[in-house]
Amino acid sequence: MFKVRCHGRGGMGVKLTAHVLGRTAFYSGYQTQDFALYGAERRGAPITSFVRYDRKPIRERGHIFDPHALIILDEHLSFSRMLKGLENKKYSFVIINSKKSPDYFRKKYKIKQKVYCIDATEIALETLGKPIANMAILGAFVKIVQLPEENLKKAIRDQLKEVGHPEAISGNLKAAEKCAELIK
Predict the structure, then answer these.
(1) Each residue of 58-91: pLDDT tens digit?
(2) Which terminus of the chain has fewer CB atoms gathered within 10 Å of its CB, N or C?
């Protein structure tokens, strides 16, 4: 089972990130779970969302305390809290929405796992006209974990239509593609 924890703030699309990633994995033939944990339901409050996917039925429930991957949409959140549980995973990684280098985060927070950084906010501004980086960063994430990019595109289209934002599909698809191209 592959476990992902997403961190960000209210209004950044943290919950939607989990839904789209879960749908992408489902379209790729996996059993999936995705859900969010809210503190205060307000714009700017810290939010965590979770995704599990596996080829076998998923019987585990609840929060993910030992993720294989972290998606961090806001680099200004508490890293000591976000990194909990990751230290027990040998083959795990962190992807951070940031202009800073991976070495900056590895050194500052003593991260032993692979760290990827991409300025998904800037890419979202260029392609979508809004600083909402969630779909952009998923383009990079899907490339890293080798889920089919066409399934991410389908998930973005379907989810944005479902939540009533069809006008955002084109820009989000471009942002996801650009992040996938740039991630190393």
Answers:
(1) 999 999 999 999 999 999 999 988 998 887 677 7
(2) C
pTM over 0.90? The answer is: yes
The amino acid at 134: N
User: Is 2-182 a domain of CATH 3.40.920.10?
Assistant: yes
Read off the pLDDT of each residue in 138-156 and give the average, rounded to a whole number: 98
Q: How far apart are CA 164 and CA 168, in angstroms?
A: 9
